[in-house]
Amino acid sequence: MSTAAPLVILLEGDGVGPEVVREAAKVLRAVAPHIQYQSELLGGSAIDATGVPLPQKTLSACRSAAAILLGAVGGPQWPRKDATTGVLGPRPEQGLLEIRKELDLFANIRPCVFPSDSLLNYSPLKLETVKGAEFIVVRELTGGIYFGERQEENAEGEAWDKMVYTVPEIQRITRIAAHLSLLTTPPRPIISVDKANVLASSRLWRRVVTQTLAVEFPTLPPPTHQLVDSCAMIMVKNPRALNGILLTENMFGDILSDEASVIPGSLGLLPSASLNGVPGGAEKVVGLYEPIHGSAPDIAGLGIANPIGTILSAALLLRYSLGLEKEAKVVEDAVRKVLDDVSSGGLGLRTKDLGGDATTEQIGDAVVTQIKKILA
Ligand SMILES: NC(=O)C1=CN([C@@H]2O[C@H](COP(=O)(O)OP(=O)(O)OC[C@H]3O[C@@H](n4cnc5c(N)ncnc54)[C@H](O)[C@@H]3O)[C@@H](O)[C@H]2O)C=CC1
Ligand SMILES: CC(C)CC(=O)C(=O)O
Ligand SMILES: [Mg+2]
């Protein structure tokens, strides 16, 4: 374990963001007390304080940090209308897109696994359908339609968004998928998801994914290709058929990963890592870690948000940015213990989204208690 004191930037954001980040930071403090923290503004709270969703101070702090932990941004109060001009102000989500672009966080890794087998009974899908489902969504994060040119509604009543991909953008995200595939023996199959029957950008995607894997990773089996619409159907009908790496572009990955959270039972469960390179390699990668969910304005301030997705994101931070694999495992084991049924030695604690009545804080405290027991 490194003895230096790495700096982690906390971007609490909006809505339930501060509630879930508080618990994840508590967990990090328990498992790795040497980490230093600094809180900075992003999103709606940054707009209110500074006028912009990504203040320069936040960006500079993130650039010099070892890693970043984010809650979520956005809410119905933004964009705000200027009282005199009636002009709409910036959107919190712009800040998130900007920080991803500025830090070149092109690889978004979203593992869809059951943090505890006891959750098999809480999935809205049938137990026999979801049992054994386990895949990783590898989402391209700095290209595609979220970053293309756009035209807001004009006088002709038209609006459009342009989806652009380039060969290097597709090559580099394919390399991340290949790297993750090769971490297991046998390698996890790579399923590339696109809409190549309609979109030119998807036809480029399919060609470049196939070629990059064939040329640079000849030992890997060739990828399979799945159209995004039928992929969405398979995900809830027979998710085990997708076991492996789902490699896809920005918007498809955004949508499919929210759908994937239905398998373990809640959007509040799944973590993510946004990286600018291959994790665990010789080069230091920049990493921003966040749950896959949004700011959940409908439950903000009630203290009932599920913090597990953020806590598991903190585990990914320990693993990918700080090289603290043992500590990452301790956090994951502690989360499992908290969720596991009492009959199998766990606490059986669940927030409302999973049918329980535990608060956000109780889950965080329980994870900390389990960490202390594991480390004792
Ligand atoms: N990474 C980010 O910062 C993201 C921000 N957003 C923003 O969040 C705002 C709300 O978007 P929505 O479409 O409502 O998506 P959302 O993910 O915030 O919420 C969807 C549903 O899931 C529930 N939910 C989400 N997280 C939960 C948690 N941790 N525990 C329990 N229940 C949870 C919410 O209560 C809501 O019913 C929007 O402004 C959107 O732009 C959305 C997605 C990602
Ligand atoms: C601003 C959005 C693209 C955020 C989002 O939905 C996500 O990254 O999951
Ligand atoms: Mg999303």
Describe, in plain words, how this protein is organized in 3D.
The chain has 376 residues and is α/β, with parallel strands linked by helices. The chain contains twelve helices and twelve strands. The chain has helices spanning 17-31, 44-50, 56-64, 92-102, 127-130, 167-181, 200-216, 228-237, 250-260, 308-320, 325-339, 360-375; strands at 7-13, 36-40, 67-72, 107-112, 135-140, 150-151, 160-161, 190-194, 224-227, 244-248, 271-275, 287-291. Strands 2-1-3-12-11-4-5-10-8-9 form a ten-stranded mixed beta sheet, sandwiched between helices. The chain has a two-stranded antiparallel sheet with strand order 6-7. A hairpin with an 8-residue loop joins strand 6 and strand 7. It is globular, with a radius of gyration of 20 Å. The model has no long low-confidence stretch (mean pLDDT 96). Magnesium ion is lined by residues 254, 258.
